[in-house]
Amino acid sequence: MRVVLAEDLFLLREGLTQLLRAHGFEVVAAVESGPELAAALAEHRPDVAIVDVRLPPTFTDEGLRAALAARRAAPGLPVLVLSQHVEQLYARELLADGSGGVGYLLKDRVLNADQFLDAVHRVAAGGTAMDPDVIAKLLSTGPADGPVDQLTPREREVLGLMAEGRSNAAIAQRLFMSEGAVGKHTAGIFGKLGLAPSDDDNRRVLAVLAYLNTART
Amino acid sequence: MTGRWTALVRGVQLYGVALLGLVGFVFTIASFIPGFGFGLVFSLPLPILASRRLARLARLLTHRWTGVAIGDPYLPEPPEPVRQPDGWYRHQRQLYRKPWMPRLMLRLEWVLGDNATWRDLGWMLLAPFTGGLIGLLPAFALVGGVSLPWWGPGGVPTWLLVALGLGAAGLGVAVAPWTLAACARFNRRMLGGALLRSDVDDPSERRHPIRAWFGRTLLPAFRLTLLFLTSMLAIPVFVVTILGLLGGFGLGIYFLVPAVLEDFRWLADMRRSMARWTGGRIASPYRILPPLQRRIDDGLYQVEGRLYESQRWAAFNQRSSWLLKDPATWREVLWRGVDPIVGGLIAFVPAAGIIYGIWGLALPRVTQTLFGVPEADWYGHVAGYAWPAIPAGLLLAVGTAKLAPPLLRLHGRWTRLLLGPTNEAALTQRVEQLTQTRAEASQAQASELRRIERDLHDGAQARLVAVGMSLATIEKLMETDPQAARELLARTRESAATALRELRELVRGIHPPVLAERGLGDAVRALALDSPLSVTVTVRLPQRLPEPIEAAAYFAVAEALGNAARHAEARTAAVVLAHEDDLLRITVRDDGRGGADPTRGSGLRGLARRLGIFDGTVDVASPPGGPTVLTMEIPCASSSPRTSSS
């Protein structure tokens, strides 16, 4: 799988490159600034781009904006954004075009290589990978007496994992229950939130986020 | 049927309360005259507070009988004056030995500065003739209808009178519930919610069209009328001042002089506080009374070149010379004399034009047409005819109402001319203020640095040391007990992640990354997403603002939203950020229970201090029952152009 990597800190860039190579990824370009990233994405057309939010030359949200611009030029280009901090605003911007293949993770998550690589795979396959921190905030700041409150604790757990972008099988594995039980929970959640059920992982996240967005305005 | 009868009786009772209100109104207005004339500031709050009881009774009865709930609209009582470390009580720029005078001043400002006071007075004046009268109408119809056959006009057949009378009485009883409800709605309008929220200026809120029309056309004239009244007040004040000066200097007794000079400053202060109607604030121009100097070696008090044994005399002399040498004093005395003519005239024109136009030209014609009252020959005629007086009168009223806004601005300029600080005085005050805010700023910064240092030392730093130690242990364990090494490794990784999280939170507390990356608008949007409330954000910022101001504004909004969520039990909030004329204005409005008191909450005080560094101001409007509106203004010249494209 061909990867373009953008990260301005030398140590982290080398570490990520090694990690990815060790797990069978082909890192076709590892760049350190926004303009270089734009050029590399246009040239290599990778299977997935892993991008730091904050990049030179502005050291602001250059990376995020370069990634969004690249996705506008090449719709569906999978982009995994890494950040020192998670910001709901950025998560929503990434999800806004609704075409999937996006991820937004804290940089710390690379400490747990399996989790990180799982996220890369999911994004490359057109799914989503949202950081648990983002999801926790989304769920905790929903309307006080909205439908999210009617969910059972178990259903909230399932909703959280679902919003991170996990499949029913993965959720079942994480929560030590059968896939059938997960299916029952998801059906219950969709019923209580008034969402039409769907099999598509990506659509599920978008639906959850859309629900949370509309309920809050 | 009994419901109709009760409604009828209650309408009469509510009207009785309204009539009492009229008596109270007359009494209150009457007490204004000696209150202002003799400088007896004390007598003013009493009748107003007494009339609040009546208004409360009206609210209570309206609620009990009609179910129309009317919230208590008054501002919370002012706090007690606080004794300064140096033993003085301070009120604005004035120091007092005893707390009663500042307490009185605070109460006076509290009572007169409350919109609800003026609404109460308006209700007391209007209710017996308008809304309250509606409640009386059914009883009137009943009594009139029943007595019609006895007291009716002669020459009309009795059966017709009886029929008419019965009809009127029946109609009165029938409509009683509706008239009672109308009366209750009137009371709610006048005694409850805001009628004129001139103190809350939120550009995002759409105003009621009638209220907007009123604010545009009649409000300036109304304000000019009030300004005219203050100009008239200046006449007795000026007379007393001159008599006091003459008596004081002429007889060589100068006890009178400080009294007449200082004790009448309230009039000028009042006019300065009204300046916000007329375009811009006017700062107080007076110098601050310096603390009394004591000579260490022989214990004498020094006032300029003289030494005094008794503290009393020294203080008295110091106060006299402080008063007499302040140019602001003499400019103000001049104002007292000239304002009745200049300010009075400016204010008089539109008010007189409107009043004369409607009452003098238009109304007599109307009454003459309707009732045939004999006409007076000195007014109401235009070019020898009576009827064109109606359009002429209305035209005069409308024309002068149009004239009112520019005259209001002119009036503001006139007030500033003599009552505003001169350039020199403004500079002196500025230096004083800067010295104070600099001290506060450096103190705040030092304590912030200490906090960061402590957090790092206790948190991330300690954790990283622990990580290092664990790694050393793991190195040893690798050979002897690989299983234990693996477990410890997992714990160490967790520890490193926690250290990272703590560092992240620390950075966020110093300068949030989204603020650095996107600027104030998006940072506040992000804040709104994180808030448990449902927050709408309106941003009108043409460009990035200077970084320190962005940070101060960001934390101010964070604090305000936090307060709304924690203390006010609010559900929704609206934040408006606007940058106009080099002034950043932030409005945070929530739908909580209100009653926020800046003198009690340390959060609000800290907010004011934080913004004070930038000459910013915080204004809290939070009547009990809400809504709370926090208005923060920070002057700032714009700097670098916006960097973010979004």
UniProtKB/TrEMBL annotation, chain A:
A Pfam family hit: GerE
Xref: InterPro entries: CheY-like_superfamily, NreC/VraR/RcsB-like_REC, Sig_transdc_resp-reg_C-effctor, Sig_transdc_resp-reg_receiver, Tscrpt_reg_LuxR_C, WalR-like
SMART domains cross-referenced by the UniProt entry: HTH_LUXR, REC
Domain HTH luxR-type: 144-214
SUPFAM superfamilies registered for this protein in UniProt: C-terminal effector domain of the bipartite response regulators (SSF46894), CheY-like (SSF52172)
Single GO molecular function: DNA binding
Database matches in CDD domains: LuxR_C_like (cd06170), REC_NarL-like (cd17535)
Keywords, alphabetical: DNA-binding, Phosphoprotein, Transcription, Transcription regulation
Domain called Response regulatory: residue spans: 2-122
Official protein name in the record: DNA-binding NarL/FixJ family response regulator
Species assigned in the record: Allocatelliglobosispora scoriae
Highest classification ranks of the organism: Bacteria, Bacillati, Actinomycetota, Actinomycetes, Micromonosporales
TrEMBL record, chain B:
This enzyme's EC code(s): 2.7.13.3
Any one Gene Ontology molecular-function term assigned to this protein's record: protein dimerization activity
Domain Histidine kinase/HSP90-like ATPase intervals: 554-636
Superkingdom: Bacteria
Span of domain Putative sensor: 18-195, 227-419
Domain Signal transduction histidine kinase subgroup 3 dimerisation and phosphoacceptor: 448-515
UniProt catalytic activity: ATP + protein L-histidine = ADP + protein N-phospho-L-histidine
Protein name per Swiss-Prot or TrEMBL: histidine kinase
Transmembrane segments: 12-30, 36-55, 125-152, 158-181, 221-245, 341-362, 382-404
Pfam families: HATPase_c, HisKA_3, Sensor
GO cellular component terms, semicolon-separated: membrane
Keywords: ATP-binding, Kinase, Membrane, Nucleotide-binding, Phosphoprotein, Transferase, Transmembrane, Transmembrane helix, Two-component regulatory system
Enzyme class: transferase
Family matches, as PANTHER family: NITRATE/NITRITE SENSOR PROTEIN NARX-RELATED, NITRATE_NITRITE SENSOR PROTEIN NARQ
